[in-house]
């Protein structure tokens, strides 16, 4: 079974431009050598086709303490070659983001443990829904006016949803992304499939792997790295064996 990873993040004012430059490996992040591809779309006319200009305005005009962007971090199946992974990323954007403004990047760093490639995509998008009304940058991010949409900003897709509804929406996105990946894997003739469910939901008695982070890995001894990788392989074998009995 292929590995599945889907993480939801969000960013507030003060972090937006930095993060956009981080995922596209621009500015002080240009020394990274793992960038595979980038893309953007659904930008308003005033952005002039420049996603950085869009995020600059979003950071300036979005309301205080509100989420300026949402981000999905998604692992791309290693069973696909690079061209297939890029096509998968484009399909994911189209079906997950819809008409909302977005910026994405594909990274393929070599893992600090085990030396294996780790292809994944970062998908930044705004919750603002375009409605065909031509607005200025400031008005785009103003409060939505449902009675007179032309007087307010673009409606937020997450606006008015309670915690339960947001949780259900996140679960639906997890399921959708797995479906998109499995469709692509089947299309190219790969036998592997991903599963968006947790180990517990699948009846697999294996502890999920703890993300260590680059700083912690850097300070691990060779013995500790070897033991961690061996444990990872053992967990994968146990997971595969139990999944086969379901």
Structural summary, described in words:
39% of the residues lie in helices and 15% in strands. It folds into two domains: 6-187, BirA Bifunctional Protein, domain 2 (2-Layer Sandwich), CATH 3.30.930.30; 207-244. The protein is built from eight helices and seven strands. The chain is globular. Mean pLDDT is 85; it is low at 225-246. A five-stranded antiparallel sheet has the order 1-3-5-4-2, sandwiched between helices. By secondary structure, the protein is of the alpha+beta class. Helix 3 packs antiparallel against helix 5 (163-187). The chain has helices at residues 16-23, 51-61, 82-97, 137-140, 163-187, 199-202, 214-218, 222-244, and strands at 6-11, 35-41, 69-75, 102-107, 120-125, 128-129, 155-156. Residues 43-220 form the MobA/MobL protein domain. It comes from Dyella ginsengisoli.
């Amino acid at each position: 079974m292929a590995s599945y990873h889907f993480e939801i993040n969000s960013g507030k004012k003060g972090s937006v431009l930095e993060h956009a430059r981080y995922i596209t490996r621009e500015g002080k992040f240009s020394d990274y050598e793992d960038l595979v591809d980038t893309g953007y779309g659904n930008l308003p006319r005033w952005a002039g086709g420049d996603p950085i200009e869009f995020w600059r305005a979003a950071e300036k005009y979005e309301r205080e303490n509100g989420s300026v962007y949402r981000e999905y971090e998604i692992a791309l199946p290693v069973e696909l070659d690079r061209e297939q992974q890029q096509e998968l990323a484009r399909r994911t954007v189209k079906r997950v983001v819809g008409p909302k403004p977005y910026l994405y990047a594909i990274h393929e760093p070599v893992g600090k443990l085990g030396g294996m490639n780790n292809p994944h995509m970062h998908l930044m998008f705004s919750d603002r829904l375009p409605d065909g009304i031509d607005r200025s940058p400031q008005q785009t991010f103003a409060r939505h006016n449902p009675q007179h949409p032309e007087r307010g900003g673009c409606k937020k897709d997450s606006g008015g949803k309670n915690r339960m509804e947001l949780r259900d929406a996140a679960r639906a996105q997890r399921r959708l992304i797995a479906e998109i990946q499995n469709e692509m894997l089947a299309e190219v003739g790969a036998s592997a499939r991903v599963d968006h469910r947790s180990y517990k939901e699948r009846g697999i008695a294996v502890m999920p792997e703890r993300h260590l982070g680059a700083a912690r890995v850097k300070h691990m001894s060779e013995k500790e790295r070897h033991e961690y990788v061996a444990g990872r392989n053992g967990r994968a074998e146990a997971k595969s064996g139990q999944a086969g009995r379901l």
